[in-house]
Amino acid sequence: MTALKRIVALLIALIFTTCTVLTAPVSYADKHDKTKFKGKSSDKENARVVDGKDTSWFDYKNPKNEYEIMNEAQLIGLCSLVNEEQIDVWKPTRVESFEGVTFVLTRDIELTEAWTPIGRDDSTNFAGTFDGNGHTISNVNITTSFGHSGFFGYLTGEVKNLTLIGANKSNDSNCGGIVGTLSATGKVTNCISGINVTGNDKTGGIVGNNESGTIEGCINLGNINGTYKVGGVVGENWGGTVKQSGNNGKVKSTNRGFGTYGTGGVAGRSVSATAVVEECYNNGEINSNTEATGGVVGYVNAAGSTVTDCYNTGTINIKTKDSSKNITDAYVGGVIGIAGVNGVKIRNCYNAGMTNGADISGGVIGEYLNETELKIEEKYIKNNYYVSMSFKSGIGQIEDDDDKNIDKAAKGISAGGIHNLTSSLSVAFMKDTGVYGNNGYPVLRWQKPVNIVEKEYFKGMPEDVQKDLDEYLVETAGEIRYGDTMLKVFLPQSTTTNAFILYNEAKDKIEELEKEDTKIDE
Questions:
Q1: For residue 11, what are the contacts with CB-CB under 8 A and spacing of at least 6?
Q2: Distance from CA of residue 500 to its chain's centroid?
Q3: Distance between CA 131 and CA 53 in Å, rounded?
Q4: Which of 222, 221, 200, 204 is nearest to 213 (CA)?
Q5: Contact indicator for 62, 28 with CB cutoff of 8 Å
Q6: If 0-12 CB within 10 Å is exposed, 13-18 middle and 19+ buried, where does residue 221 land?
Q7: Bridge partners, 80 (sequence order)
Q8: Which residues pair with 197 in a beta bridge?
Q9: Which of 94, 351, 392, 412 gets the most CB atoms within 10 Å of its CB?
Q10: Which element (helix H / strand E) includes 12?
């Protein structure tokens, strides 16, 4: 080969190699290698976005165990890969469940488009792990006519560490702020929902319908509206576990049936022998038209199902049989609306909320359908408390009218007594030293102090002083949570709390004296 031919061949090879390098696709790892792109916004420059969705990060021939989600287009792309057949991209009828795959949200995202739930049913669902990584997805706007409705429509995997803000409106059942329907393998952990949810039956702040899955460490802040089986955390808890979760939003239900519908601050219904609700609370107002309404759970059935270490401080407003022109009574309990069978375990719970308008109400349980002569407090229902001035009895209606152990199962005490109840409850509780936003009532150990931004401080006291006190009280909460050790120093915050206690006790005594005076006058 002549020298000229060798030079031409080298030039051709050089040109071919250069073109190959310049046109080679950028790998997912390369796009996130800051040493290669030196701070350039590579996710925007290299993403392939079609109709607002970016699926370029996923190669089905070379799948990865973990992906990062950085923007709205990639979120929509994830939804598309789970929900839609990718006919134009690869093999027809192919959809992805992403079982065993983790997605990590790397930044807060404000959505600009209406959101379509990820996962449609038990055959088209998300089976991976979506880790919000402490970030927030805001301006979530969901509107559905039918099907499972939530940020995740049908979840068999896990979503965790995620905060959502927005609204979800559905004309169908199974509607939730985070998840519409949660399967037996599904989990929702450490999530916060600021989603205002409107649905039909099985509507909840975190999950609409829980089919034996797990909800743990979740808080609902949104307002929840449904027909029946409506709850601040979950609408229907069928054999699932709801643990260390709470509701601060308003809960509303509109329909009444015959005995088994339910509305609750935490769960509308919690049914089957394996159903568990533990270490949960409700602070939100409840407006109910169903026949079984509870501050924590509306309706509970099946021997073995449990509601333990829970409390309610929210007000419950009820439409009575006459006012709503229904043919069934409205049963209301400060903790449980109706316990539908003997063997339901209800322990270590308290109610400090008021009830308005019930046909039959109880400080702890509205109606208890005990079918045997076994004394209720001996095995199943015990160590529960309520504010005595608000209710005539701890259990509104009970089959065995001769049962003398009702006070032991559900005991009425003064409002001041509720403040000092911590040592009588289980170790799951601790005293509210003024920083948990619970008006001095006992709180659960897992609860965090109220955010300084959200807290209303006492008038006349410098805010910086109160913040210092808050920090001190949080640090020393372990010393005073059992009521065994009192603070030995003068603290305005403690003094204020004690003043509330004395005020409530005095108020109880005044009301008792007024009742006695009324009897004498009669």
A1: none
A2: 30
A3: 20
A4: 204
A5: no
A6: buried
A7: none
A8: 168, 224
A9: 351
A10: helix 3-23
- Torsion, Cα 403 404 409 414, to 10 degrees, reads 130
User: Cα dihedral sign for 336, 342, 344, 350?
Assistant: positive
* N residues, the chain: 522
Tell me whether strands 53-54 and 49-50 are parallel, antiparallel or unpaired. antiparallel
Q: Decide if 401 contacts 366 (C-beta within 8 A).
A: no
CA gap 246, 87 in Å, rounded: 43
Task: Please give the average pLDDT of every successive group of 10 residues along the chain, which has 522 residues.
Answer: 42 36 30 29 45 87 94 96 69 73 98 96 94 97 96 98 98 97 98 98 98 98 97 98 98 84 96 96 96 96 92 94 80 94 90 93 90 63 90 84 69 88 92 84 91 53 62 52 30 46 58 63 56
Q: Any residues with CB less than 8 A from the CB of 503 and at least 6 apart, and which? A: none
Structure tokens at 174: 């199974």
Contacts of 83 (CB under 8 A, 6+ apart): 95, 116, 118, 119, 120, 124
Give the H/E segment covering residue 322.
helix 321-324
Q: What is the pLDDT of residues 357-392, one digit of tens each?
A: 989 999 999 998 866 555 665 678 899 999 988 888
Which residues in 74-103 are b (16+ Cβ under 10 Å) and which e? Answer: bbbbbbbbbbbebeeeeeeeeebbbeebbb
Contact indicator for 231, 263 with CB cutoff of 8 Å:
yes
- The residue type of 63 is P
With tokens 């970030």, the residue in question is 135
Tokens of 177: 């702020």
The reported pTM is 0.79
The number of beta carbons lying within 10 Å of the beta carbon of residue 386 is 28
